[in-house]
Amino acid sequence: MEKVAVIGGGSWATALVKIISENKTPVKWWFRHEADVKHLQTYCHNARYLSGVTFDLQYVEPATDLAKVIQDAKWVILAVPAAFIESVLQNLPAAIFADKFLVSAIKGMIPVKNCLVTEYLQNNFQVPMSQQCVIAGPCHAEEVALEKQSYLSIGALDVNLAESFCALLRNRYVRASPVEDIYGIEYCAVMKNIIALACGIAHGLNYGDNFQAVMVSNAMLEIEAFLQAIHPGVRNLSGSAYLGDLLVTAYSQFSRNRTFGNMVGRGYSVKSAQVEMNMIAEGYYAVKIIHELNKKLRVNMPITSAAYNILYERISPAVEIAILKEKFH
Ligand SMILES: NC(=O)C1=CN([C@@H]2O[C@H](COP(=O)(O)OP(=O)(O)OC[C@H]3O[C@@H](n4cnc5c(N)ncnc54)[C@H](OP(=O)(O)O)[C@@H]3O)[C@@H](O)[C@H]2O)C=CC1
Ligand SMILES: O=C(CO)COP(=O)(O)O
């Protein structure tokens, strides 16, 4: 029997627990707050995210004791925004992951350390890359809750490992495929959040679909150049784990990053947009991390630079997007 631990109580964790537990794989599910555990045990719903999803408690066991949740699992899925993962895992001994497969469902990087989640797990918990997977692909938790047809790409160095994890996810409305480019899809998932945030800013400033299409096209060049600089390789960026993920985030009504950017474009301060959202836009943190990494790489990244200037240097969104407008073609 495969056993799964899911760490995080937000929207994506909720969607993943739905998918896996409905396939009758037992899931131990870690929450930060005892009140959320009690709510799930009493009402069979997550209290605060995708609360329309009902769970069969025969297969889902919520708890706040992280070590116990992880203890017996073969697969440990991390679904906490990257900015909080260090604080969530800080009291765990490295040995706890020794015989487990770690799966990052996170589309963000660790602030200050400026590293990928997989690199962080390798450096801080000695989890070799051969024991790690990442979940990528254009897939919003909200559409999983509605059981709309969705596609996931599972990255791992060994496609057989990725394939084993895919088997836990496939169902009537989820198709999952293994991908070898684990680093490429992990970086691309981080980059697309920055672009969606910039698209949201432009939308908030009343730019239309014509401008956004050009922004997204230029973004693909920016992503390609960055990926080649940070992790060179042969990859087809038209694949759904790359272009597909960018498109869904840049255009969807469900996108946290686009929504956050839209508020900033409309004049909200960064702080008030974050408070208003109640969800986490990974792109906010990613902008700073990629900007800092790029000080060494020196890739031409006009969209990331504009987002950095708006979010961290308090330069007017209207000014930055007007500058971008002149650079696009
Ligand atoms: N939502 C989606 O459709 C998808 C999301 N992802 C990725 O999944 C990851 C999780 O995002 P998502 O589920 O959307 O998050 P949400 O925005 O839905 O929820 C926010 C999450 O952050 C947690 N959180 C907030 N503050 C803290 C803190 N100080 N310490 C620890 N945890 C905190 C919340 O916990 P609490 O409720 O206890 O406050 C909650 O679990 C992200 O990396 C995202 O990019 C990937 C694919 C799809
Ligand atoms: O990555 C995601 C969907 O693939 C979720 O991020 P957004 O909510 O910003 O779109």
TrEMBL record:
One of its GO terms (cellular component) is cytosol. It catalyses: sn-glycerol 3-phosphate + NADP(+) = dihydroxyacetone phosphate + NADPH + H(+). NCBIfam families: PRK00094.1-2, PRK00094.1-4. Transmembrane segments: none annotated. It holds the Pfam family NAD_Gly3P_dh_C. GO terms for biological process: carbohydrate metabolic process; glycerol-3-phosphate catabolic process; phospholipid biosynthetic process. Belongs to the NAD-dependent glycerol-3-phosphate dehydrogenase family. This is Glycerol-3-phosphate dehydrogenase. Residues 3-158 form the Glycerol-3-phosphate dehydrogenase NAD-dependent N-terminal domain. Substrate binds at residues 107, 256-257. It comes from Adhaeribacter arboris. Its EC number is 1.1.1.94. It is an enzyme of class 1 (oxidoreductase). NAD(+) binds at residues 84, 141, 256.
